[in-house]
Amino acid sequence: MKLPPWFRRRRVGVAATLVSVAALTAVMAPLQDDIGLLNEGLLLLLLTLVISGTWGREVGIFAAVTSNLALNFFFVEPLHTLTVQSPENVLALFVFLGVSIIGSSLLAAARASAEEARRREAETQVLLSLSRAMIGQTEPAEALASLCREVVAAFDAPGASVLTAAAGGWGVLAHAGSADAGRPADAQERTMAEQAASSGQITRIGHTGLGNSRRPRIVAPSGTQRIREADVGSAFVPLLFGDRTLGVLRLDGPIGATPFAQHPDSLLAAFAGEAALGVQRAELAQAASHADALRQADEMKTALMTSISHDLKTPLAGIKTAVSSLIDTSVEWSDEDREAFLATIDSQADRLNRVISDILDLNRIESGVIAPARRSVHVASLLDDVRERTALVTKPRVVTLDAGADIYAQADETLMAQALVNLIENAAKYSAAGAPIHLAASAAGASVEIVVSDEGPGIAARDLPHVFERFYRAQEGSRRVKGSGLGLAIVKGFVTLSGGSVRVESAPSGTRFVIQLPVAEQAKASA
Amino acid sequence: MSNPRILVVDDEAQLRRALRRSLEGHAYDVREADDGASGLREFDAFKPDVVLLDLMLPDMSGVDVCRELRRKHETPIIVLSVADDEKTKVAALDEGADDYLTKPFGMDELLARIRVALRRGSTNRAQGSEISMGDLVIDIEKRTVRLGGDELHLTPTEYTLLKYLATNAGKVLTHPMILRAVWGAEYTDDTHVLRTYINQLRAKLGDDSGSPRYIRTDTGIGYRFLDPES
Questions:
Q1: Which of A230, A251, B30, B56 is the most interior residue, by most CB within 10 Å?
Q2: Chain B contact for A324, CB < 8 A?
Q3: Inter-residue contact A510 to A454 (CB < 8 Å)
Q4: What is the predicted ipTM?
């Protein structure tokens, strides 16, 4: 039989006892000669048991005493006094009192254990549903959100959230229910969370609807005035993991009339335990990703050092070999020998200079010290200029130029020129000595496309996504080509700073680098 | 007598040419190869007395070239590499390289290493019944060691270790190589054992690890028995 919660209150039970005993007495009093004392006693005993079954032991005992007094006063001679004439009636009244108290207690105990069993069953259902919801959640934050959803469902609460004391404040790690559940903790809530975390006990603000069982209690924050009992409030359940408190579960009130409303402790403890595991997982995942980032940075640094040391030491080796030969007086070097050694020193010093410039350029790009000066650039002139600047490197190739005279792009001319020089040198490096290199520009809508293409062997598909990464070198095939592995990273940096983008397309017949820049008005160029 | 022949295997054309010119100036016959495969081919055709080998070749690793050469030949190999990391060096030495030189290097240093390598190639010290180096004399038949005329009392292991080091004088021997040769293949990780014995041996030889006369430590790599003639 389902009874509304208000009906179960003790006050209601006491009132019902008084009313029902009075009513039964009123009905039986005129008929007492016909019914007889035994039946009157049994009827009152029946009433006592019904009351005890409904309102529990305390109200049951109150009913037993009330019925006993009514029986004595109205039905036992002398009537309308509480004195008893016949000794057997004294015994009968005591037997009545004893039977009704024992009966009430037994009934109340049976009722309580049935209720307990029902609650346990409901709890088991909730925990089963919780584990179903948590299983398969690989993301700790997702798992905690599922847990909050289960808390909301189990307590029929407006919202639930998991707070962690990260970086000074209480941050919301996950939440479910109303949008308000994700609100940041205010000062009072932070105090409550602190209290819960330090005491290891549940703390509450305002009315949550959680039963007045022993543990949930109002803890006034020290040094502040009494907390106003608001109509709605929240409970803060500490999340304990070993001897550490990892956070709190914030349960917003008022909760609904669920089986756990009056005895929430064990279920809250189960939720808190599960949530603590979730927070622990989240912490570990964060630590792992931090470690991962560190490892990657470390690998990057190692790759950088390996690459730099190779790129710097290789030309140095040539220089040192030539120089140490020249200063070796044990050999009579011919003029031709001397010239050859000097030529080696000269070319290797240039190479060393290029590598160092590349490293410095990349460093400037990455540290953000370059302030690009974007203005209207006449693309055909720019291409012609870089073609001239790279003539020594591209010799004896033909470098074709196909750009309309009326194309203007918005860019930093110096950065773009450097990027194009790098692309042309790259094309010269990666294609056969006689193969032509093509420079082209076209305007389409709001953008200008500049293409540097070669007729080399192309870039392997697996290398293609990485060519703009610094120190990336093709896996094989092109290892003969010497370079710092920085050239294309610099191209990308310069083009991006210049306000454009660069992409690469490659086929076995050649590679195309396509730079896209915003189109500029010709008028601006002359301005 | 013809000049000693040196094969230079390196993909850096400038360095190769400078080396060639310098070595030819010192009366060596030099041939060049710009990758591993052509290096192996040139080796068969040229039959060099010493190979100078870069570790970073475009087609294969210099370590693989070492292994390939060691299958058939005992020709001394000197590794030239920018790689400073010990793993790379040890790998090359374990595969049979005799020595290594980190780029950049001076020609004096390279020429000295070449001279040691050539001596190693021409004389096999272990064949004689006696190894003599300065005032150190190891009598292989009698298993005795004399230092400046006085007989040294060595344990059998110390003797075996000294003999192995002296037999390979001038050559860098990695920890695993020494451990394998003296203690056996299952001891190749017991570097601490080796260190203990080297210390004992140094004490008996009156050798100072700071300025060694006999046993030089190549940190992280192994040991080299110094050739007194170089």
A1: A251
A2: yes
A3: yes
A4: 0.70
On whether any CB of chain A is under 8 Å from the CB of B126, the answer is: no
Find the angle CA(A454)-CA(A459)-CA(A465) to the nearest 5 degrees: 120
Distances (CA, A) of B101 to A288, A525, B59: 41, 57, 21
B-chain residues near A310 (CB < 8 A): 56, 82-83
**Which chain A residue has the Cα nearest residue B111?**
A325
Q: What CA–CA distance (Å, rounded) separates A393 from A369? A: 29
Report the domain count for chain A. 4
Which pair of structure tokens corresponds to residue A461?
């598909």
User: Which of A65, A97, A128 finishes a domain?
Assistant: A128
Whether residue A303 lies within 8 A of chain B, CB to CB, comes out as no
Partner-chain contact A321 B22, CB within 8 Å: yes
- B158-168 residue pLDDT tens: 888 998 888 88
Residue B118 touches partner A, C-beta closer than 8 Å: no
Say which amino acid occupies B76: P
DSSP helix/strand/coil, B22 = helix
Q: Kindly tell me the burial class for residue A284, based on how many C-beta atoms sit within 10 Å of its own C-beta (0-12, 13-18, 19 or more).
A: exposed
B18·A337 Cβ contact <8 A? no
Reduce the DSSP state of residue A394 to 3 states and report it. Answer: helix
Q: Which of A337, A479, A482 sits opposite B25 (nearest CB)?
A: A337
Helix (H, G, I), strand (E, B) or coil at A342: helix
Torsion of CA A399, A400, A402, A406, to 10 degrees: 50
Amino acid identity of A193?
A
Residue A297 in any domain: the answer is no
Contacts 24+ apart (CB under 8 A), A279-282: A279/A140, A279/A144, A279/A162, A279/A164, A279/A173, A279/A239, A279/A241, A279/A246, A279/A247, A280/A241, A280/A246, A281/A140, A281/A143, A282/A140, A282/A141, A282/A144, A282/A173
Residue of B nearest to A333 (CA): B25
Closest residue to B18, CB basis, from A313, A321, A331: A321
In a domain, A58, yes or no: yes
> Can you point out the beta strands (E) in A436-479?
437-444, 447-454
Is A459 a domain residue?
Answer: yes
E strand segments, chain B: 5-9, 29-33, 50-54, 77-81, 99-102, 130-133, 136-139, 144-147, 150-152, 172-174, 215-218, 222-225
Could you tell me the residue range of the domain that residue A84 belongs to? 5-128
Instruction: Look up residue B128 and give its two tokens.
Output: 């004689």
CA distance A485 to A471: 4
Nearest-CA distance B127 → chain A (Å)? 35
- Among A89, A108, A128, the domain boundary falls at A128
CB contact residues (below 8 A), chain A span 258-287, against chain B: none
pLDDT digits (tens, 9 = 90+) for A199-236: 888 888 877 777 653 333 444 445 444 444 456 788 89
Partner-chain contact B103 A313, CB within 8 Å: yes
CA distance B59 to chain A (A): 8
B58 lies within 8 A of chain A by CB: yes
- Does residue A421 lie in a domain region? yes
Condensed to tens digits (0 to 9), the pLDDT of residues B75-116 reads 899 999 887 677 878 888 888 888 889 889 999 999 999 998
Contact pairs from chain A to chain B, CB under 8 Å? 78
CA distance to partner chain B, nearest, from residue A519 (Å): 43
Contacts of B17 in chain A (CB under 8 A): 340, 344
